[in-house]
Amino acid sequence: MTWEVSVRIGSFVSLLVIFSLWECLTPRRVLTGRRVIRWVSNLGLVVLSGIAVPLVLPVASLAMAQMAVTRGWGLFNNYEWPHALVFVLCVVALDFVIYVQHVLFHAVPALWKLHQVHHSDIDLDATSGLRFHVIEIVLSMLVKLAAIVTLGPPVLAVLAFEVILNGTALFNHANIKLPLRVDAVLRLFVVTPDMHRVHHSVIRCETDSNYGFNLSIWDRFCGTYRAQPKEGHEGMTIGVNAFREERDQWLDRLLLQPFRNSPEKDKEAD
Description:
Number of helices: 13
Distance between the termini: 49 Å
Mean pLDDT: 94
Order of helices and strands: HHHHHHHHHHHHH
Number of domains: 1
Radius of gyration: 18 Å
Largest sheet: none
Strand content: under 5%
Low-confidence stretches: 263-270
């Protein structure tokens, strides 16, 4: 196992444990579903994606970054810029790419069918940040690879971006209760659990808002920011109306969900 893989896996496991314990100590909402079913399914999707991506794609993000550096691909491999500046710009640019990708997965009906697997979780906790259909993960990796070829980021910048993306996804999906003043300050810069929870509402205008995973600036700049849910954080309904039964939370149903009759109109109108 290379040191890069060790860093990614080590940070992922450590943060998952930390946020899961934090949720138990200061929960934001009372969970409505059985945790064991959701955890088995959500973590099962991670395992299946980890198996599928290397089988489908011949190269991963870090390897593509190294290839881009070696072959001189991308913007930053063809100009002499300060290393620290390039590092920061690449991490920020990749974060914006993920924001745009997220918007598209809501806007395009065929992509929404895949992405609704993520939204059909009836509760939110740290594992919800891992709940993505295998096909969506493959498509997301293709987007990252294209962005890496275009930008030509340093390998360390890509590694930092991957670690930050995984960490913030766990954080902003976690069922954590932050003091309101702390949340107000944090969300000026990063996406907080309260900010992202709005995005998982069944109300369409709320679902189609707060797309960011890491930096909150994209939602504010692009006009997709929504401060609070209409029904409040304790009263809001999370999930997708078409998939609210406990059986819908099983791993086999999640894998088949995009191919069932569930058009994007399942998102309630506001």
